């Protein structure tokens, strides 16, 4: 089942399975990639990534010195990928004209022994789409976690190859190309092929790359921008989203070249590295926001 919200000419569609973003448009112009009702989200489109984004190497990590063995959800590389909630049925808490909120509990299971409750709210207003994540430790021990999401913003009807990309990221994290997990520390992007601090054309750019050091602007928000000949879209996030994965698949169904800009609170394999994990004591909660704003030329 899908849940529609509207505000003026803006419309968004959210799935109950996974609580993912299936569509976002204004005046019928798409500002996120979409897919058909009942279809499996292609390339993780719109997925909510909790309690870790991206990959956990070998599907293993340690909690308080105890080895945790997650399900190997990426068998080809032997990793656990994209958390535990994207295939769960979420419960709708409230659904009104311009907003919807949902929740799901992460039960103790193989590799994840602590109970968490995670919430998400989507809302539309005159500025665009806002998405608010919540994580609540309803277990009995301190728990580290990360949050990410997997939207595919698009500059309206402009082709991806006609667009430019600008990122707030100041570092890039090198990956083992076979396993797609980190193989060294993050390094500065300045002067490299990964420097998108100034907008650069997307044509011939191929990325499946984690960027870090995302710096907020004067207003306290991290901002990434895709701009095309007829307009653009800005993906903004709270400062807790210090990381962003950028992925440019060449065969997004019905679209061809597309771009995912995935805000993350921590990098790939953070359950092992500990980098930028958030830890909640029993009874504590965390919240963070990101969103998309259409831009005109």
From TrEMBL:
Gene3D superfamilies the UniProt entry points to: 2.70.98.10
Species classification: Bacteria, Bacillati, Actinomycetota, Actinomycetes, Pseudonocardiales
Domain of life assignment: Bacteria
Annotated SUPFAM superfamilies: Galactose mutarotase-like
GO biological process: galactose catabolic process via UDP-galactose, Leloir pathway; glucose metabolic process
Organism per entry: Kibdelosporangium aridum
Protein name, entry field: Aldose epimerase
Pfam families documented for this protein: Aldose_epim
Any one GO molecular-function label of the UniProt entry: carbohydrate binding
């Amino acid at each position: 089942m899908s849940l529609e919200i509207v505000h003026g000419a803006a419309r968004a569609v959210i799935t109950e399975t996974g609580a993912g973003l299936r569509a976002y448009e204004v005046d019928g112009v798409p500002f996120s990639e979409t897919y058909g009702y009942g279809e499996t989200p292609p390339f993780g489109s719109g997925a909510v990534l909790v309690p870790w984004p991206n990959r956990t190497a070998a599907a293993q990590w340690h909690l308080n010195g105890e080895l945790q063995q997650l399900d190997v959800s990426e068998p080809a590389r032997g990793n656990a990928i994209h958390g535990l909630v994207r295939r769960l049925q979420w419960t709708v808490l409230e659904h009104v004209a311009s907003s919807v909120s949902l929740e799901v509990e992460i039960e103790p299971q193989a590799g994840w022994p602590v109970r968490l409750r995670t919430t998400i709210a989507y809302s539309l207003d005159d500025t665009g789409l806002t998405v608010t994540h919540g994580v609540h430790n309803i277990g009995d021990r301190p728990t580290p976690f990360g949050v990410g999401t997997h939207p595919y913003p698009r500059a309206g009807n402009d082709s991806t190859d006609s667009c430019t990309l600008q990122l707030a990221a100041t570092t890039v994290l090198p990956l083992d190309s076979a396993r797609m997990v980190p193989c060294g520390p993050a390094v500065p992007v300045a002067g490299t092929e990964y420097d998108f601090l100034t907008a650069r054309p997307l044509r011939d750019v191929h990325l499946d790359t984690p960027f870090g050091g995302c710096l907020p602007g004067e207003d306290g928000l991290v901002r990434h921008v895709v701009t095309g000949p007829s307009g653009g879209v800005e993906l903004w996030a709270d400062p807790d989203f210090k990381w962003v994965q950028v992925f440019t698949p060449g065969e997004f169904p019905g679209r061809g070249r597309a771009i995912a800009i995935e805000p993350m609170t921590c990098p790939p394999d953070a359950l092992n590295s500990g980098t930028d994990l958030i830890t909640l004591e029993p009874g504590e909660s965390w919240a963070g926001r990101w969103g998309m704003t259409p831009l005109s030329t």
